[in-house]
């Protein structure tokens, strides 16, 4: 059987999916409510293709140029997620260079939202899903709006950016990319307030939280979107033996 020759990344992804299932079970949530984004930064296209061939479609990148370089080399039905801080002057290049961009995680200012909105309007594509990035740890080095400003930015995207679809919130957590239950709770509180104030259902408002080190906890605390890099693809640049 071909299965014996499965790549390390595909095996690792299967293992992650099993852990997602178990975390969902513990939280009494259907596993269908949790999306896994395979974050493939610094990894060669061939490795992504193996994961794609195993049936996987949601991939994420952190650098605009890397995503613009990779996207044309891979199948068009991949759903790309741009993850992290996006400079407003790169919004147009990103949207133009990646026609199959599925979601931007996340928008952290009205300026970035406006640039993305304009870029999408010029393309005649479906509205682009965006998550508002919230700085839940209070660390200066982290991008994202303060939790107290989350409603205001979500409202701006929803009401002033017709080519964007406000789809929820994301957070990165602490400096070492781990998160505490408090970080996750803060994001869930943002969702609660926004759903109430903007009159949108909780199902329409995603929580993107949880990475390789803490995705199980995140799922147990309500995450709908976990971003897994090193656990699937190995450490960046220096693959583990």
UniProtKB/TrEMBL annotation:
A Gene Ontology molecular function term of the record? pyridoxal phosphate binding
Q: Which cofactors does this protein require?
A: pyridoxal 5'-phosphate
Which of UniProt's keywords are assigned here? Pyridoxal phosphate
HAMAP family listed in its UniProt record: PLP_homeostasis
Which family is annotated? Belongs to the pyridoxal phosphate-binding protein YggS/PROSC family.
Reported function? Pyridoxal 5'-phosphate (PLP)-binding protein, which may be involved in intracellular homeostatic regulation of pyridoxal 5'-phosphate (PLP), the active form of vitamin B6.
**Which protein is depicted?**
Pyridoxal phosphate homeostasis protein
Organism name: Ceratodon purpureus (Fire moss)
